[in-house]
Amino acid sequence: MVLKMEQKYYQKEIETMPVEEIKKLQSEKLVKQVKHVYENVAYYRDLMDKKGVKPEDIHGIEDLHLLPFLTKADLRDAYPYGLLAKPLEDCVRIQSTSGTTGRRVVAFYTQKDVDLWEDCCARAIVAAGGTKEDVCQVAYGYGLFTGGPGLNGGSHKVGCLTLPMSSGNTERQIQFMMDLSATILCCTPSYAAYIGESLKEMGYGPDDIPLKAGIFGAEPWTEEMRHNIEETLGIKAYDIYGLTETSGPGVSFECSEQTGMHINEDHFLAEIIDPDTGEVLPEGSKGELVFTSLDKEAFPLLRYRTRDICVLSRKKCSCGRTLIKMAKPMGRTDDMLIIRGVNVFPSQIETVLLNEGYQPNYQIVVDRVNNNDTFEVNVEMSPEQFTDKVSEVIAKEKALANSLKTMLGINPSVHLVAPKAIVRSEGKAVRVIDKRKLI
Ligand code: ADP
Ligand code: ZN
Question: Of the candidates 129, 127, 126, 124, which has an alpha carbon nearest to the alpha carbon of residue 140?
Fold first, then answer.
């Protein structure tokens, strides 16, 4: 047997470029991009004029802070064409956000934009060990959602044999995975967990499938969830991050070190700001992630506030990449629940549940009754954990409520529910039902 050459990087020169050179490249691109936007996007020109900034004031990345922010509200205001920087006849694609937090927004791509986006996804696949000898099963949704098309394009660029399954039809996913020897799986982490669960139900274990790696993203997931998926599928699970507004998945990706995601800094300039004041925070601080697209032609957002909470780090990485890393986002500012005055992230709850031996099938329900917040966590028992003995269930609920209280500082009411009582997700999981917002 001939040993295959492991390909370590997709675009080595960029991925391992000395930091000073990357910064120089970013500065050059930023100056050009600001001109492009000012000349072609009236909406952003107005924002710059209001702030008294001209393209001539931007000499490099040190001047980035002078530019105004863009928010999701601006995108909704400017919907659909208000932030377009190229004539429509130069565009070849439209994608849309998932609408997780409200009305969907749309993004436009020229052929070059699609190409660069696919390159970013290709970098992620290679970092997860992908080569042209791999079969890459893409089980993200295809269509307006960027997950499917992005990873599909990246997989082609690497030269993998691409299996464009889209999401859903889980038994068929597993059948094809086995019949066609898929070695890499791309989908949301909640769908990966569901595929793992179905595999078990079909009477198979991790050794029965040829998968070696998974590239999972599009929603927050904890380290505990990662271990759970790695075990059930027998793979190494890599994180990938992105958002439609900046192209889609591939803004950042994980390498073999699995300690945060390298940002494709040659295309996306990242900042961390204080979400309340807008002040730029020093490296290592926790805050809201802001991106500036340095190369996008059709939909080049400058200083776009993602609302994702995270930390940046330039610590040296063992993979050899010099690209800055972002920690796993904790969730979005608007995912954070304030319950009885206490800040709660769904990811904290997920950590406790998985540590206590439960599966990642849960739902958080928050309501307000007589001016008091109610806080329920419904957690599914696995078939092995299931019992119909009331006293046992009550004892388990109490134990779990105690662990959650230790983590969160407030007391939830925990309900253990029967296996399969919580709806599974084939895309982004809906973990929180906040009835207070519905009023
Ligand atoms: P929507 O904003 O409607 O969900 P998108 O499909 O564009 O639309 O989703 C982008 C968002 O998904 C990001 O802003 C982030 O909140 C979340 N996201 C994407 N990848 C990850 C990831 N790896 N970890 C945590 N959150 C992620
Ligand atoms: Zn690395």
Answer: 124
